[in-house]
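Q: What structure does this chain adopt?
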Amino acid sequence: MKILIIHATAGAGHKKAAEAIFHGLQAKSGFDARILDALDYTNPFFRKTYPNGYALLVTRLPWAWGLVFGLLDLPWMQPLVRMVRRVYNGLNAKALQKFLMQEQFDVLITTQFLSAEVSAYLKRTGKIKSKIICVVTDFDVHRIWVNKGIDVYTAACAYTKNKLIALGVLPEAIFTTGIPTDAKFAARPDTAALKKKLGLQEGIFTILIATGSFGMGPIEELVELLKSYQLLIVCGHNKELYGRLKPKAAKNTHVLGLVDNMDELMSVADVMVTKPGGLSIAEALVKKLPMLFFSAIPGQETNNIKVLSTYEVVSQTQSSLPQIAQTIHDWNSNPKALDALRLRMNELSKPNAVADIIALL
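A:
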């Protein structure tokens, strides 16, 4: 079976989901699987401005991103949105369309809405016959994910499935697999040995502060409020933040840049303070790691918080930094509250998401 897993690099989550599925297929026989970034098959200007424009909006002008996100989700806007997207993607992704028509994959698995729109257009116009599986990588669903021509949608949870149904997707086309995460997040390592490997002290409440792929948020203020705990601070791509924080590193304050062992860091942490991106949340749910959120991007991230709050695994209101610190103080002094929270996370934790998606092929 000839399979293509396709994503687009605008934020890290879509790529991580695609890689998790790809690695799952590599571990099985009988599949000829490939993975690619849709942006590699677009014109040079689009390839540069698509991720950079998104990064600019969410880091510098989040209110503008929230406005655009909301406008594009209005029901009465959809005829215009679909027309503009088709023209826009058709002009900029000609090479992608040509590639998909030439290769005629048996299955296309798309983890981002650009590639979902392009492949769905080709399918409904008869230019490809591939089975198309659209993997939604957030807990809520924007209308931009829904395209005629897609055969199967995968949903993060029951809320996501119900939202897809409300947007017109047939219930039998939706499977609640969860958001795919790498197999290493499902591992349960020896935390004592892992703490020793990472140079951490035993018996101290440990907080993982993850800034997201863009290294956003009031991290320095947060570190000051939480300095009495053992801290693991992941700065991501933000080299300036790393440069400012590194001199503050101490016995209980560990400052890291871009890491490839987030699964290990989550394993040794008691709590994670992070951006509410879909993949980060899914990974933490698999690890049963309680979460607090800061600097949520208006739109998909604030909606993720809204969905999680319906399952009582987070607070719907975005906490201020003092509120985050106070919640952590409360959890540290009341371990039973954390244990109860971890139990509630079971409903959303989907460690077998990759296997369940592969079963749909």
